[in-house]
Write a structure and sequence with these properties.
The protein is built from five helices and five strands. It has 186 residues and is of the alpha+beta class. Strands 1, 2, 3, 4 and 5 form a five-stranded mixed sheet that branches. Strand 4 (150-160) and strand 5 form a beta hairpin. The longest helix is centred in the N-terminal third of the chain and has 46 residues, at 8-53.
Length: 186
Amino acid sequence: MNDLKKHKYALSFILLLVLLKFVLLPWYEWQNSLSVSNKLLSSKVEKSELLIENAEQIKTAIDSQGSQLKELASFFYNSDSNDQVKLEIQKQLENQLKVFELQKNSIGWQNTYRYPEYPVKKHLLSVSFSGDTYQAIQFLLMLSKSKKINEYENFSFNLLRQQEGGLGRVNVTMRIAFFELTKELT
């Protein structure tokens, strides 16, 4: 007992250190983690309240984007099957060649390319026709006015038998790319 009284300050200091290490320090760490957790929860609550306050604006923005996506989709061909789109395009071109009294020499589908990061396929069509130069120009102008996106990858325009007062005849060879949506834009 005398030894305890003799070292009472040292023992008090050791008791204080044990109390700090095993009681106060864990309690302080628990309070810190609780404080961090509360801050995260309060920021989630603030974000949720902000979303609730701006719900009408968000709904308007989503509706606006939906209409913009529908408008964008109208610039692409859309079909359930590859062959259906190709057949539709080919029939339209052949009919327009007849309307403009142009003689088709050949129409043939080339490769189809997929864009992995986008829901779009690119179909290549090789077209060769001949006829009156004026009618050929009118046909090409009609193609350029199409609402759908077309890309002209190769174009050859050979003029024949031009005379004074007349444009003569023309042979046209071109490769046109048509774009198809493979799924609905959302």
